[in-house]
Amino acid sequence: MTSILGALGGALDSLDEDEPVRPRTTRDWVVDSLTFVLAIAFAVLVTAQEFYGWGADGIRRGPAWLLWVDLALSLVLCVGLWWRRRRPVSLALIGVLFGVFSAASGGATLIILFNLAVHRRFPVAAALTALNVAPTLIYAAVRPDPAVGYWATIAWTAVLASINLLWGSLIRSRRQLLRSLRDRAERAEAEQQLRVAQARQLERTRIAREMHDVLAHRISLLSLHAGALEIRPDAPAAEVAKAAGVIRASAHQALQDLREVIGVLREPTAAGDPERPQPTLADLTALVEESRAAGTRVTLELPDGAENPPDVVGRTAYRMVQEGLTNARKHAPGALVTVSVAGAPGAGLTIRVRNPGPLAVGAPVLPGAGTGLVGLTERATLAGGRLDHRREPGGGFTLEAWLPWPKT
């Protein structure tokens, strides 16, 4: 018996916890107070009607003690209305017991069943509503109403209970719809904020990549010439003036590149249009000559009469060579850098930048962000190619990449 009661209690608890109970608001207090007053007024009115024979036949329905018990139990059920949101299933089952002989508790029972239909699933509410209608079969026989009749009493009770159930279910469906729409709106807003945050992050990454690609080369030239002036403070005035001129020109060009990059990144471009500044493979010669003018020994191997690859491929190849020259100036000053580019439509484009170790041991190393190779790897992947970088025996370094070059 104990196990059966425990299982029944657990089942009731699971049904009563179908919907989480929120803290009672001011509106809830007003509604609860109103329903409590209405239920008590109904119980008192029905008891007085039956006690004093105010019905159509003027006959008291039952002994006085039964009417007083009916009123007392209905008041107990009215007090239970304060827990109708937390324990609606339990109160509905109590209403089934009272419905066998009690008429005064009918108002409180209807309120409980209505609350059950609003806050619980329809199968649960429909089953408990049917259970509360079933005692009418016994009540109509024990306390008959000659003015209405046995079957009419049962029919009116069933109709009233069905209307009550459908009304509560309609309100539940409407609340669920509003809650679903509200959740969708909140989720859409959160997704929009996430997309905005991702767009901002992508834009920041894009700016950082462009700044690194464009400015690292210029800044390394500035540092190289400034280091030469620092090492040879007694150099002839002509050499000092020449180095100062190169520094000034490199600084001016770095500022110009910075303005162009920031300006382009701020202005939206049409879909599919290349972004400026966008060097191509044809600009590699100027890039190498600029490095040679800064004192870097560079050899460039380009096939004669080579066909120009697509803009995306040429742009990516230029950035890779630029990063390779910048790294060579940083980590191997004075070493001979070999740049070779070869390829054809259908076979792809191969870029290789190689340099031995630094000639001067202990030479100052220029600081770096450590993200250049990461950015180049990402560029190669986005272009459909691959990139490999490795250290050679003796301290050398090789940067090698392959980019697809489709046939036109």
TrEMBL record:
Keywords: ATP-binding, Coiled coil, Kinase, Membrane, Nucleotide-binding, Phosphoprotein, Transferase, Transmembrane, Transmembrane helix, Two-component regulatory system. Residues 171-202 form a coiled coil. It catalyses: ATP + protein L-histidine = ADP + protein N-phospho-L-histidine. One of its GO terms (molecular function) is phosphorelay sensor kinase activity. CDD domains: HATPase_UhpB-NarQ-NarX-like. Residues 203-268 form the Signal transduction histidine kinase subgroup 3 dimerisation and phosphoacceptor domain. The chain crosses the membrane at residues 33-52, 64-83, 89-117, 124-142, 148-170. This is histidine kinase. It comes from Catenuloplanes niger.
